[in-house]
UniProtKB/TrEMBL annotation:
This is Phosphoribosylformylglycinamidine synthase. It comes from Calidris pygmaea. It comes from the Eukaryota. InterPro entries: Class_I_gatase-like (IPR029062). One of its GO terms (molecular function) is phosphoribosylformylglycinamidine synthase activity.
Length: 100
């Protein structure tokens, strides 16, 4: 993969076909998207990460560590109420660091 794409048009299809794309930017209904701001870098097919065939190595474009606390998130569901520090110790962005 190179900046915003693959070296050849077949690259994306091969990566998807081999199961090497574990994360994709998605729209509100879960479809991969290339549309900003849902996909901040415009990557083809919404690719947000690539992994090695064995799954041991992960290269990720998003920065989950930048969403450690809820008030750092770019979007907040209105039904959740106003984001405050009370009741929050760790956000979802930090959970990825504690997963393995």
């Amino acid at each position: 993969m190179v900046a915003l794409g693959f070296r050849s048009p077949e690259g994306l299809g091969a990566a998807l076909g081999e199961g090497l794309v574990p994360l994709r930017y998605a729209d509100d209904v879960g479809r991969p998207t290339e549309t900003y701001p849902l996909n901040p870098n415009g990557s083809k097919g919404g690719v947000a990460a690539l992994c090695s065939p064995c799954g041991r190595h992960l290269a990720i474009m998003p920065h989950p560590e930048r969403g450690v606390t809820p008030w750092q998130w770019g979007w907040w569901p209105p039904a959740w109420g106003r984001p405050t520090a009370r009741g929050w110790c760790l956000g979802a962005g930090l959970a990825i660091k504690d997963s393995g």
